[in-house]
Design the sequence.
């Protein structure tokens, strides 16, 4: 992925996107096709790639849920694989999107590093489904807008994703991605029922959910 505009010489991250204009156009067109082909009443399932032992897991899941359209079902390791084998290929075929959470270089950094597992999860879906990076400062950023770099070790490579400094939450890519992840045909009563169930699924082991 490459920058679409000339950054300031003293700050190479000072761009709105690292995607070329044609990359953005192809991404937006693909998202529009996904949205147009979604059948009314069909569910939308998104997997959040976060380490199951992450102390911030519940907080990040709540932030991500707030940034996504109403009615989206969020899955993560505990709800998808707890007590079962990690069969990513079987799950990926039933997903509508992916949110990855990397380890920031430092507090507030735009540089996020994905571990080997998250990198492979991203690679399996990024060409066909909405894949978003969760950043602590800007919320959800489409991976297409990020600068990516494979990192060692060679036997288990990691992935560095850099979010653009001047990222805009109203950009055409995030609006298209969220439209592609928007369920259709939810009634108000059905949506309220869904929210109650989803609140439990996000924090299935919390005291409040027992």
Sequence:
């Amino acid at each position: 992925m490459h920058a679409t505009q000339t950054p300031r010489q003293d700050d190479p991250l000072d761009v709105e996107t690292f995607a070329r204009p044609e990359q953005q156009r192809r991404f937006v067109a693909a998202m529009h096709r996904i949205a147009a082909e979604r059948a009314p009443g069909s569910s939308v399932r998104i997997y959040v790639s976060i380490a199951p032992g992450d102390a911030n897991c519940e907080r990040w899941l709540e932030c991500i849920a707030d940034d996504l359209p109403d009615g989206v079902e969020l899955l993560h390791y505990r709800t998808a694989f707890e007590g079962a084998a990690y069969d990513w290929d079987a799950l990926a075929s039933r997903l509508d999107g992916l949110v990855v959470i990397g380890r920031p270089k430092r507090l507030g950094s735009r540089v996020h590093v994905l571990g080997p597992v998250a990198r492979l999860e991203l690679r399996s879906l990024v060409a066909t489904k909405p894949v978003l990076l969760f950043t602590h400062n800007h919320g959800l950023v489409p991976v297409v807008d990020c600068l990516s770099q494979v990192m060692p070790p060679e036997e288990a490579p990691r992935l560095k994703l850099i979010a653009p400094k001047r990222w805009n939450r109203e950009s055409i890519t995030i609006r298209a991605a969220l439209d592609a992840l928007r369920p259709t045909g939810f009634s108000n009563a059905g949506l309220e029922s869904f929210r109650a169930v989803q609140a439990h699924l996000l924090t299935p082991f919390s005291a409040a959910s027992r």
Observations:
- Residues 1-7, 187-198, 204-210 have pLDDT under 50 and may be disordered.
